[in-house]
Amino acid sequence: MKTTVRKITNAALLLCALMITGTTFAQRGGQGGGQQGPPPMPSDDEIVEMVSDLADEISLDEGQEAEILELYQAHFEEMESKMESGRPDRDEMEALMSDFEEDVNAVLTDEQQKLYKKYLKNNRPQGRN
Q: How do the domains of the chain map onto residue ranges?
């Protein structure tokens, strides 16, 4: 009788362990552990919202906000066109990002540049620094 109870207990524990492992594996999206490839491009509305949030965060005036909105829209259009022709070169994409950040910084005051750098650090996707 003790042996039967022990076998049932062991089987139940094994079943629980398998269920937990399977659930964890499924939540991670298989062996890849999450999203594969670059994040999706934001829509025009999302870009406007992004720039509006940025404007509030770093105190942009209306002229700066309009100019930065144009920079963001042009940047995401360029990124999207690069991605349409297949998997883009990582170095090329990083150069585009760097150029974009320089263009944005050129519109900002010294104090806003510090705030923008902090904003980027806090709002970048995980894994990017």
A: 2-32, 44-123
Residue pLDDT, tens place only, 29-60: 545 555 566 678 899 999 999 999 999 999 99
Sorted by sequence, the CB contacts under 8 Å of residue 72 that are 6+ apart come out as 47, 50, 51
| Cα 55 to Cα 20, 34, 76, distances in angstroms | 44, 31, 18
Residues 23-32 have pLDDT tens digits of: 555 555 545 5
Nearest to 44 by CA among 85, 72, 65: 72
- The CA distance from 7 to 18, in Å, is 16
**108: number of Cβ within 10 Å:** 19
| pTM of structure | 0.67
Q: How many Å separate Cα 67 from the centre of its chain?
A: 23
CB 116 within 8 A of CB 105: yes
In angstroms, the CA 126 to CA 113 distance is 22
